[in-house]
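[Automated response] Your request has been received and processed.

Submitted sequence:
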Amino acid sequence: MNEDLQALALRIDRLIEGMQQLADSNRALRAQLTQAQARQHALEQRMEQARAKVKSALDRLPGVESLGIADHEAAH
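Generated structure:
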């Protein structure tokens, strides 16, 4: 019976260690996700700024409407 309890205690300790490792891994993954989302948001802002600059430059060009570029932009 004592051996059974020791075996059970060992299994419980292993489960606790595994849970702690999973919790640590989960925290690390959440931190990585947060960083990746922040980078994605920054890139999306930069792309929007670039789009606005390109649109502004195109708007200043004469005859751009005849090239169909305005129609292409409206599709995005």
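Summary generated for your ticket: The chain is about 85% helix and 0% strand. The radius of gyration is 29 Å.
If you did not submit this request, please reply to this message.
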